[in-house]
Amino acid sequence: MAAALAGRGKILSTAETLAIGSAGGALFLVLDLPGGLISGAMIAVGIAAIAGRPLAMPPILTQAVLLLLGISLGSLVTQQMLHNMGAYPLTIALLALATFCSTFGSSFYLQRYHGWDRTSALLAGSPGALSQITMLAAEKGADVAAIAVVQTLRVIILTAALPLLLALTGIASSSPPAVAAAVAAPLELAGLIAASIAAALILRLAKFPASWMFGGMIASSLLHGTGVIEGALPDWLRNVALVGIGAVIGTRFARMQIRTLLSHVHAALGSFAIAIIISAIFVTVIALTTNVRVADIIVAFAPGAMDAMLALALTLHIDPIFVGAHHLSRFVFVSITTPGIVHLFGRPQEDVDD
Q: Which one in 105, 127, 248, 250 has a CA-CA gap of 20 to 30 Å to 53?
């Protein structure tokens, strides 16, 4: 009986999350706001979650959303995007340097102006890889709640503000992306989804990060790039993925108390400002020294969550290969180097144990 009630509660919670996310996405779409489906769903779900609603997205539904997002991104691949891969080694190296500078810049700010301990400040300042950062924070005895607020608000602000900024400055269009005009035939669509699931499962077995999204993206890119499949997902299915990823981001506030959020909001905003200034310096250097589009560089270097930034690449018609390669590189860089950075520069372990 208890199990049945718990199962029913999860279904109702998921249904409420999707309903709120859909309403928010639809409102932003009607208002013609850039990135409306993602931003609207994210903000609506986030507000409801902070207000105390028990919102959640089950893992299987999140995986399906990420797979659809990857397939949609892969359908945008062109020969010009592949040609731009020659600039990747330089820009990825600069991204690693930018990540290092951003981490230490934000950490210094949090220690100097908000009195954070070194370990918590370093983990909060590290852009991306939130799940790994949270586990490391718990292991090192850092302030997990404060780190979660700083990391989550950074993603929320970027996801909501970046499309609007790019559209207002004319760097990227606010109109929907020019995805493949034709919808794939039913047999092609089934083959595309099957190949994407197979690729995702292989990546998952190899413990590849964001395996569902990148599995769909790799399979779709290969099939579309080689001309095996010419059509794309139906628009409504792509929109479902965009609303879904916005809802997933919004649910990060579900277990966050308002008091905790408000107590760390100034630290989060200041840390975010430092990270953006440092990223902007590197974006400017790359824009002046390479032929890569400015919009592509901005989204690739934005210190936000990988899934959110790739979803924005889809809505703003930005090179998904360039953005995906850079955010994956940042994820790997942060996952590998952060434990070492915390060990060398963070609070000594004996202080944690006291």
A: 127
